[in-house]
Specification:
single chain; mainly alpha; three-stranded antiparallel beta sheet; two-stranded antiparallel sheet; Trigger_fact/SurA_dom_sf
Length: 241
């Protein structure tokens, strides 16, 4: 099934939900501005990352923003199908855990994500995707949970990584996140992805040719001739590691 849209003013459409071009462009503008400000303050960090992964461009940030907004709508549809609710408290707990495990603290996380081209306000949309998919994984793969020993090992590795004796969240506060999303994160993702592919086919996703073309199997907006996307490879998501 393919969503039907004229794309007039829309970057994409998921089922009958439009994603406006202006929304995607604004996210990209904020992301590039955050990246440039971070590069000015931390030129060595950015130079090293660019040497490994290439520069963060407006095209990349814009396409990633569109991917995130499409994915969020697919996640919401799947969550609704399964009767899953992500409460504000659920989101806040997930956000705090992700920030601490990625960067050592929430302020450090919100500063560091700029190196990926995320503004502080827009990184929350990406984390919303991650949090919803974690809840979906809890429902469809409840047995994919790391042991307490593995979770403690992951916690101790974070202490060593950040060179600290303690983190803003204790092991007990992080235990569930570590056991589910760190120790078994890849295996849980492997369970969720086919479900999102199914719902993408059911709802239909249509992307404006200006932005590229939607790959159901990759769950990504990929480049096509004449689009503003310049590379067909999947867009990197949120990872500071």
């Amino acid at each position: 099934m393919t969503a039907c849209t004229s794309h007039a003013g829309a970057a994409a459409q998921v089922d009958d939900q439009r994603i406006d071009t202006s929304t995607v462009s604004a996210i990209a503008d904020r992301g590039v501005a955050a990246y440039k400000a971070y590069a000015a303050a931390h030129p060595d960090v950015v130079a090293q990352r660019e040497s490994q992964q290439g520069p963060v461009t407006h095209d990349l940030v814009q396409r990633r923003a569109l991917n995130t907004l499409i994915r969020l709508r697919l996640d919401e549809a799947k969550a609704h199908e399964l009767g899953i609710t992500l409460t504000p408290q659920d989101f806040d707990a997930y956000y705090q855990a992700l920030a601490v495990t990625q960067a050592g603290s929430i302020p450090a996380f919100e500063d560091a994500v700029a190196v990926l081209g995320f503004s502080p306000q827009d990184v929350r949309s990406q984390v919303h995707v991650d949090a919803l998919e974690s809840k979906i994984a809890d429902r469809i793969a409840p047995d994919l949970v790391g042991s307490d020993a593995d979770a403690k090992s992951a916690y101790d590795a974070l202490l060593a990584q950040f060179g600290v004796k303690s983190l803003p969240l204790s092991f007990e506060q992080l235990r569930s996140f570590l056991a589910h999303d760190i120790v078994k994160g890849t295996a849980r993702t492997d369970k969720v992805t086919p479900e999102l592919v199914k719902i993408s086919r059911q709802l239909g996703v249509s992307v404006s040719p200006r932005f590229g073309t939607w790959s159901v199997d990759d769950l990504q907006v990929l480049a096509q001739s004449g689009s503003i996307a310049t590379t067909p490879t999947p867009v990197p998501q949120l990872s500071l590691q």
